[in-house]
From TrEMBL:
Domain Enoyl reductase (ER): 8-343
Keyword vocabulary terms for this entry: Metal-binding, Oxidoreductase, Zinc
EC number: 1.1.1.103
Organism of origin: Atribacter laminatus
Name of the protein this chain belongs to: L-threonine 3-dehydrogenase
Length: 346
């Protein structure tokens, strides 16, 4: 089979390697599509402590089961599936509550285990036993299904925010996650949705999700614009879908009383600290939430949203590339020229 191997920062090579052989309790997948995540870009640029070269990365995976090992129950050849990235321990306090993304012993497909930038992928027994394959409807579009994983993360982010009918939502960051947040907020009944970015090119790509207002914060004062569009009240919900400490700090200046802020984008490890005015949180009764990845039930919710067309997954995919051009796809994402790029084997 062909597989793209990460060899170190800035190095990736498509190689011909043997197709994985499965043992008892394991499942073999034929990968249909693997979307390119911002994390894939960072791994390609800088490496990752959990990724040991040479390694097959990629974790936003849709596939079809082509072989089932002895003792496997609940899966059969021909099933279309979405791969749940986190393989948790299944025993800890968080796993018992269904919060696999918070498991202290978690391992990941595409990091600790080979990922989806390959024609075939073996799911280890630990992943099969923990239910890391979500069976999809037989007529689900597998290109669209590659967006189940990132959408599940956005679903997790909004699970804390309780967006109500008519509320104003500000999304900072117009990448694929920001666009997913716009579409989810619409589904929740938001009355006014504002999306902001410092890149005009990214904002143009994001116009396909039809937010109410698009603000280039490199050209206009975002705080002034938001306050003007909310009659001085501020936004009820602010989602910082960008890796920007400055944007996180500014969110506190634009939030309405009893508003909710999601710090969705993590910050660089060498600069993780922001200036935080706790009096704003105190006197305005503001809720501030973090979010990391997602858990199994949110994959299921994301798959239902895509299958029912409540989320226009295909509209978010701007570029489809073959495996041989995976580096080209990574560059498109890095440069902001792609909203969502997908490596397709279809």
């Amino acid at each position: 089979m062909k597989a793209a191997h990460f060899l170190g920062p800035g190095q990736m090579e498509v190689r011909e390697v043997p197709k994985p052989k499965i043992g008892d309790g394991e499942v073999l997948l034929k990968v249909a599509a693997c979307a390119i995540c911002g994390t894939d870009v960072r791994i390609f640029q800088f490496g990752h402590p959990k990724v040991k070269p040479p390694h097959i990365t990629g974790h936003e995976i849709s596939a079809e089961i082509v072989e089932v090992g002895k003792g496997v129950e609940g899966y059969k050849v021909g099933d279309k599936v979405s791969v749940i990235t986190v393989i948790s321990c299944g025993r800890c306090h968080y796993c018992r509550r269904g919060l696999q993304n918070l498991c202290p012993e978690q391992e990941y497909i595409g990091y600790h285990f080979p990922g989806g930038f390959a024609e075939y992928l073996k799911i280890p027994k630990a992943g099969v036993d923990k239910g890391n394959l979500l069976v999809l409807p037989p007529d689900m579009d597998l290109l669209e299904a590659s967006l189940v994983e990132p959408l599940s993360c956005a679903v997790n982010g909004q699970s804390y925010l309780n967006i109500g009918f008519g509320e104003t939502v500000l999304v900072i960051g117009s990448g694929p996650i920001g666009c997913m947040h716009v579409e989810l907020a619409k589904n929740q009944g938001a009355g006014k949705i504002i999306i902001a970015d410092i890149s005009g090119e990214r904002l143009d790509l994001a116009k396909r999700v039809q937010a109410d207002y698009y603000i280039n914060s490199a050209e206009k004062n975002l705080k002034d614009e938001v306050l003007t569009k909310t009659d001085g009240l501020g936004a009820d919900v602010i989602i910082v879908a960008a890796s920007s400490g400055a944007a996180q700090e500014q969110a506190l200046e634009m939030i309405a009383p009893q508003g909710r802020i999601s710090l969705f984008g993590g910050l660089p490890k060498d600069k993780p600290t922001i200036q935080f005015n706790s009096n704003t949180v105190h006197y305005k009764e503001v809720g501030v939430f973090g979010v990391f990845a997602s858990h199994a039930s949110q994959y299921e919710e994301a798959a239902k949203l895509i299958y029912s067309k409540r989320i226009n997954a295909k509209g978010l995919i701007t570029h489809v590339v073959p495996l041989e051009k995976v580096v080209e796809g990574i560059q498109l994402v890095k440069e902001g020229k792609a909203l969502k790029a997908v490596v397709s084997f279809l």
